[in-house]
Amino acid sequence: MESAEEEQDRVKGGAEILKQSAAGLALFAKEDGAAVEVDKEAAQKFKDETDAKIVALDAEAAALTGKDNKKARTEKSKEASSLKTTPEYIDATRILKDQEPKNGHFCKVDPAVAAAAAAAAAPAEAAPAEDAAADKKSGKDKPKKASGAAGISPAERKELDSLKDDIIKKKKELKEGGMSGGQINKDEAITTMVARMNELKEKENPGCLEAAKSEKKESSKKGKSKLSKEQEEEVGNLEREVEEYRAKLAGPEFKYSKKEIAADPDMQDMTKRLKDLQK
């Protein structure tokens, strides 16, 4: 009999599989040239609820007046700003503009199609055993799979997601404590968390870290490549967000100097993402 924790992991794992299935089916439909069927009502509901949260956070920030509340105001504004950059919010906004969701959210999944996809996947899972039997008859030794090719468990997925957030929070704490970027990267807590995060990433997708390094080297050799229409649109949206956030920090509410704006963690994160998109 499974424990409560194991049952919770299994339920969460099932939910993640359904989410990935929706995104996958949306991607297949896009590749086949078919229109992706989206749940506009769900997208509108999510955006309305998120916008309400943003308005509430902005109101809370506005109520925190005075120099002593500057840090608290900034945190509230950052929290409100971050809600607009989530994959779900981006997809909801695109759907309401009659554009296809880029991250697979709010896509309707036909139960019959999902069942057919699951049935089609079943023989593929049995194929390795059949291939092994055929190779044994022919006297061939089948190459062994990498030990990390099995992927990660729901508990490890949860740990990986948590590590990403913990690293960002820890770096922010260290930066506010006066440490430089180089010192932060060498901090024992940071290096331990990064090592574990990379270990889980490699287990989930063997060879991904080496591939990322190779891609980065190749990109630096080729220089800037031509962006697709969707990438240009994403760059444009992020540029607007950066300028809006910059104007807000420099405005009468916060009165940040150029140096303070440049040192702001959210501004640094958005600027980095913008540079990565423009590569």
Q: Which SSEs are present, and which pair or pack?
A:
Blueprint: H1 4-31, H2 40-63, H3 70-83, H4 87-96, H5 111-138, H6 154-176, H7 181-186, H8 188-204, H9 208-222, H10 229-250, H11 258-263, H12 265-278
Helix pairs in contact: 2-3, 2-4, 6-8, 10-12
What does this structure look like?
By secondary structure, the protein is an all-alpha fold. It folds into 3 domains: 14-109, no CATH class; 148-205; 227-279, no CATH class. It is built from 12 helices and no strands. The termini are far apart. Mean pLDDT is 77; it is low at 123-127 and 142-149.
Number of separate structural domains: 3
Q: In terms of quaternary structure, what is this?
A: single chain
| Overall radius of gyration | 23 Å
Q: From the helix content, strand content and strand pairing, which structural class follows?
A: mainly alpha
Q: Which geometry do the CA atoms define?
A: globular
Strand content: under 5%
Order of helices and strands: HHHHHHHHHHHH
Regions with little confidence, pLDDT below 50 for 5+ residues: 123-127, 142-149
Number of strands: 0
Helix content: over 70%
| Main sheet attributes: strand count, strand direction, barrel closure | none
Distance between the termini: 52 Å
How many helical stretches?
12
Mean pLDDT: 77
Q: What key phrases describe this protein's structure?
A:
single chain, 279 residues, mainly alpha, 0% strand
Concise structural overview:
This protein has helices at residues 4-31, 40-63, 70-83, 87-96, 111-138, 154-176, 181-186, 188-204, 208-222, 229-250, 258-263, 265-278.
